[in-house]
Specification:
The chain has 151 residues and is an alpha+beta fold. Helices cover 61% and strands 13% of the residues. The protein has helices at residues 2-8, 13-34, 44-73, 93-105, 131-150; strands at 82-87, 109-115, 118-123.
């Protein structure tokens, strides 16, 4: 509908009706190719958890920005970069993709690959060699909210 309004930029009743009808037909035809379990889209608690997730994500980004700035500005530049293998409990591909993108958008980490239930993450400072510890550090803030939103 937004695309239709941007395309025509005409706010008359007949134009809006045509836009709504075209949007509904398009959604009915193509939803099955993009979204599985469409009923999940109408569950209001998922929207609540998405808003909570946004707050958590913004907070984690702020903390990561400060951490990266500290490492860059510190005279001895305390970095210990490397790639870590993180196990996720998420099952759907969409949830894994959202987790990987959230990790990538957080400064200091980049998602390299997703293979089965594992994410390979390049991390600017590997603070522990224990997989459970660094998995909790990297995915802990995001994974539980993504489960509530998508799965």
């Amino acid at each position: 509908m937004i695309f239709w309004i941007m395309l025509t930029f005409e706010f008359t009743i007949p134009n809006l009706i045509v836009g709504v009808v075209a949007s509904l037909i398009t959604a009915a035809l193509f939803t099955r190719f993009f979204v599985k379990n469409v009923y999940k889209l109408i569950q209001p608690h998922r929207y609540f958890w998405f808003l909570v997730y946004l707050v958590v994500f913004i907070w984690e980004c702020i903390k990561a920005n400060i951490d990266v700035a500290y490492r860059v500005l510190h005279p001895s530049m305390p970095i210990r970069p490397g790639i870590v293998k993180v196990k996720t409990t998420l099952k759907s591909d969409m949830a894994k993709m959202l987790l990987a993108n959230s990790i990538t958008m957080t400064p200091g980490t980049i998602s390299v690959d997703i293979i089965d239930d594992y994410l390979y993450i390049h991390w600017i400072y590997i603070s522990s060699d224990d997989p459970e510890v660094y998995t909790g550090i990297i995915t802990g803030a995001f994974e539980k909210y993504i489960k509530r939103i998508i799965e």
